[in-house]
């Protein structure tokens, strides 16, 4: 509602004491004046009253430089208006009503005091309405409510990196694990510095040689950065580059006074956790999303209870029934309370059961029926000489292990003893088992037990790689040199004996002073900036009864904690102080006056807000400003105002006796209620149409001497469907039958029919029997039928044979129109009725159809043979023509006498013949192609 009414402007009205109250629109347009009170009060109420009574100031368009005192005053005015707007925003969040309801009957000081007094309760009410449908894990709901309450109450968050306030217009980033706010620039610098330190540390590391002489390279670079508060690790790609809202839908969200800071105002729509397929329905908000509030229809965990509607976050619910499933023993039932399938507890019934070997018997739980005792089996093997040395087991013991093939201790000689009673000794050969070093063999003779340490001298390189000397194989080579490398802190040397290059982290305490200026870093020596101080400091309220913890270093900038203890300052009116402890001056009293009202001189006590000590701002009326810097002098006085007119509601009956309304005591006189008089006139049908007027007897319901006599026509209801009014004057029922002729279209739409209105809509049909109503329906149908043949067509396409009728044509499946039906080849045709044609749409072919089909097929084959013969003949002609033109010619030897004749003279035919041959060839080619 607050977002709907924030642009509405309430009318400027006078309060009970005729003191002008400044409206919200004027407070936004005009700067508030700073009051100069005698008691030093600078509350927002005095500023609002001063701004309301101020005259329009001269527009400051002059370029005259202002003195420092005027600039200071301007800044103070700006701060005053800013505080006033903040209090107004709190009032909207607290009362949650429109601006007209806020300002009616209250001055500016009362509004601010009332909003401050009920801010906590109203915020809790708003959050209760928002989260009333969310149930589930109390930790998630509580964390979301805490974040929302901090933002609604304008409690500024603190950036743990720079220890500065996170303002509404700041560009921020919030951690995805702990939801803590940080300035965007601070977290970017923090992440880049952290990763740079890790890269520098990795570059300073080097590979090394181990005691076997193998080169161990330095570990791979693993660069990440973590949250300054919860230490959650993030990849380098996760460094925030843009300022986004909480839900991530909008970049660079605009600052809106009616939205949560850093929010886009759109639905969150994040996937809820645990994943259930639903999304968060709250508007874009900080902190974790509350549990899923959607409702689902699910059964209990055991599935024996009927399905019921429950919140999605609590869909795994437990009924009060007992589980009837059989336990693993197959004998007893579960009997536990409702639980998931496959999660029945072990059977706890007890019975006497023997152990695996059968030597002992004891009472055990049913699910522990196969139990193992601690005694040795000691059953004889089949050899009869040895006994089983295994612990209690089931089944046979098997053959005697000493009767199987055995070998000497070194394993080189394998033999099978004649009997299991014989003992296999050492073979006398060298042991030659691989020692623990994995390179040398045991040089001792075959022996019982494990081999000793390797005593071979081998050249080894020490851990740091500076010394190489022969040393016993099973020992590690260590020199006396000290490592001079710098540890990860970048300040202290390693100083480790024979270091292998992997210097341990620095074990000294950092000891740097943290940004809070009070404590020192207690972490181990490190590179880069220290983590923020995790200590807490305490701040107290004005009375000292309430203590709150804030981040260390924020004591001076943090607001005093909200104290719920009563205020200890002396009251300025006849009421005791009922508000809680607060900083600054006490707000104006908002309790009702309660004293006898001497203005109205009635029996009711004054119910107006206490007016014993009201700040009244007065200005000089004849003040003429010299320039824009000159402001009128203001005088703030605390006065006792007279009682306003009594507003207690008393019952007052209207002039006509229709209703009894509650009117203020100061104006409790009978008046017209504005309703119609409604007294029954002498005609017995109509009632008095005049507005509520003075009558002789208010309790009477019949015509009075001041009522208007009846002059209307008949208004009795006509039969249902009749739209014609009765032509007679006002009379008692019944009316004459309606004789108006009605013209209408028939059912087929070709002819107009005429009937009387009373025949179609007779009177007295209410409550008739079904037979009479059916007879009326048949009569109406006969009126609207023209008696001619219906012009509609059946679905088959033939015309309906019935007389003009309503609705669909009857019996469309009985159409008897003659149609022709043919066989598939179209040779045989028969004329039948339409209903028979729909049942059998085609005829069967006879012998004549088969003969015609065979004749057509033979004719088609003959044409195909002729076409193939013609095509072969054409191909043969083209081939002969091609060979004639491009075939190889025979060489003929010229005769000498012919050459001599050509030298004498060339005949014209020699030139003409080739040209004619070419032309004839081209003509034949085109002729064959065509």
Automatic annotation (TrEMBL):
Q: Which UniProt keywords apply?
A: Coiled coil, Membrane, Metal-binding, Repeat, Transmembrane, Transmembrane helix, Zinc, Zinc-finger
Q: Which residues form a coiled coil?
A: 849-879
> Which Gene Ontology MF annotations are present?
DNA-binding transcription factor activity, RNA polymerase II-specific; RNA polymerase II transcription regulatory region sequence-specific DNA binding; zinc ion binding
Basic and acidic residues bias (residue ranges):
84-93
The record's listing under InterPro entries reads: NFX1_fam, Znf_NFX1, Znf_PHD-finger
- Give the residue spans that cross the bilayer: 908-928
GO-annotated cellular components: nucleus
The UniProt annotation puts the region (Disordered) at: 1-118
Q: Which family does it belong to?
A: Belongs to the NFX1 family.
**Which PANTHER family does the record associate with it?**
NF-X1-TYPE ZINC FINGER PROTEIN NFXL1, NUCLEAR TRANSCRIPTION FACTOR, X-BOX BINDING 1 NFX1
Q: What is this protein called?
A: PHD-type domain-containing protein
Q: What is the lineage of its organism?
A: Eukaryota, Metazoa, Ecdysozoa, Arthropoda, Hexapoda
